[in-house]
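dude i think i finally got it to work??
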Amino acid sequence: MLQRDAAGMVRRVQERNRSASLRRALAVLDHVRERPGLTLTQLAEAVGLSKSTVLRLAGPLVEAKLLDRDRATGVYRLGHATLRLGQAYLATLDLRAVAAEESHRLMSEVRETVHLVVYDPPHVVYIDKVENATNVRMASRIGSRGPVHCTAVGKAILAWQPEEALAGLALEPRTKHTITDPERLRAELGHIRRRGYAVDDRENEPEVRCVAAPIFNHDDAVTAAISVSGLTSRITAARVRELGPLVAGAAARISRMLGGQSR
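look at this
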């Protein structure tokens, strides 16, 4: 009985030690990710461990090509196996699945319809929609297309596209508030980049306001956007200023899950 208890205690201690070693090895990997080019001494100081411990922890990571150590300078960088891991992770991502939790959280917070779109020049395509059942339903349908120049989601995407994306874009008036002047649209897109979110102020539908923010993918390109839409009686001009940071925050979190960085 005593032997079994002692053996069990030894196993538990070994498991704890392995778990602690794994956490420290991951800390080493994370520090190299944040600050590539650290020497052994610098890395040991950064993680608060001795140089011998860092060497022991880094050994298996170097063997697995997750870390690389320059033979001439001794500095550490991420190994090419991290790229394979990243590519494998990104290959499994589905935008709707990634954004689902944030879309539902945003709808619950603001009690308005949330849309998720992707860019298909010169349109946006609605790929998901989360509605508040107590409100008037929006006319949008999953799979439908919308113009980029007069929707909040479209302008949120267009603001981060190259200049040639605007060339030849038909600025058709959808309402009396639609921006149809190219220079005015360019100024609006600049304002969106500085502010971090776009507004459709009755530009696509006469009685609807929308607030949208860009979603960055792993290449830091904007190919999607998320928005909040509602009747002007509910989304007033004053409320737009409250919704903007909330929508931008949701878009930033989705961007990070996709491997991108929000701006």
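Confidence is low (pLDDT under 50) at residues 6-10.
im so relieved honestly
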